[in-house]
Specification:
three-stranded antiparallel sheet, 3 strands, 27% helix, elongated, ConA-like_dom_sf, Ice-binding protein C-terminal domain-containing protein
Length: 103
Amino acid sequence: HFVASYDRSTGQTKYYLDGDLKNTTSPGYGTGDNLVIGALGQDASSDNWYGWIDDVAIYDGPMGTDQIDFLAGGGDPNPIPEPATTALLILGGVGALLRRRRK
């Protein structure tokens, strides 16, 4: 599990491997530069990763160590409720509305 977290306010990128901070750099690139997933450096034509990349996520702010630990532990950042839970919530809401109207 690998995470790179860039903080625009400090200009620092922190690199985590399996939830542990491994390195902090100030790379000197701006947020207007191209993002290439699976390439080393800004030149996407060399040093490419050959293999599978799974579960790529981009967030709009720097992540804290607690969030990174959660993801490294297999946590789901955006859990989707199972259909039965959603159906029960909808039925409960409809039942509450019907009961309220009868009073």
